[in-house]
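Section handout 9: paired folding examples.
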Amino acid sequence: MTWGPWWLADTGLPLPLGGNVVRRDLGPAVMDQVARDLKASIEYSLAHRPSALAHARQFNRGISDERMDTFVGMYINQWTVDYGDRGRQAVRLLLDRGHQAGVIPHRVDVQFIG
């Protein structure tokens, strides 16, 4: 089964593939700085794709440059910079379903920053 098409057909939302997490007890200033730094790093890599791919090549396990470019593009794109409202809704729904299924023991109250 391919999960992305199933999730889209079932929910009408993009499949959340990952996210960055910051401990709330670090406080708003640190949380905001981490969010800014991560966003700047992602935006920089998107703006400098050839050099970012050259760096990633050392971790690509021998796949071709073309396939690596496709793979990276699936996971690092504008959704990575900002989930947007649909992406936030998808994250909340995924976590809620995980809790309802018993996979996540407690309901997760997501706070998006940045």
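Moving on to protein 2 of 2.
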Amino acid sequence: MTTSPTLRRTLAVALATVFLAPTVFAQSGDALLQRLQTRYRSLQGLRAQFTQTMQAEGTAAQTFSGTLVAQGNRYRVEAGPQTFVTDGQTTWMFDSRRNQVVMNRYVANQTAFSPTTFFGSASQRFRVTNVATSGTGTARTYTLTLAPRNASEMFQNVTLTMRDADNTVSRVEMRDGNGTTMRYELRNLQINPRIPASTFTFRTPRGAEVVDLRS
């Protein structure tokens, strides 16, 4: 049985799609994740408004909003009555409802979520399993689905939305091994803003209870 040139070309295209597409996709996904990582490793700092939604399996979702300022391993998060500050050596957790400050030593933790730290090590911790593109021009975004490279990774499923214009993340959703889902949405993101050094220290309000766990 012989085949026509047209049919042979059709079969060749089909075979190329089946066998070559995964390679092209993998390179595209890896390249995007590398762009993201390079961007966050080069950041001098960022400021943004955020909304965090957390939902443990079988429970109702909890949502709160606030502001985030980050610079390397230093960051300040203010969300309603709670403020969390670290200068890379000491952490302060203040709850205005209790008028209480809890102080502790800063410990770098790969399970914690800090944009500069998390995205700055993304390609070492995760691999891309799917990429979806939406929008055009300066509005183009990529949705990357990530899987952990190590079974011991706390976050077992990660989906993030990356802006093509500046390689920054506007949304990330993570699910840990216990079935807890966390979603962060960033708004009004400022890259490399001027950040006063005092941002990452905390002044204890007069009359507040201080619990010092550093000793």
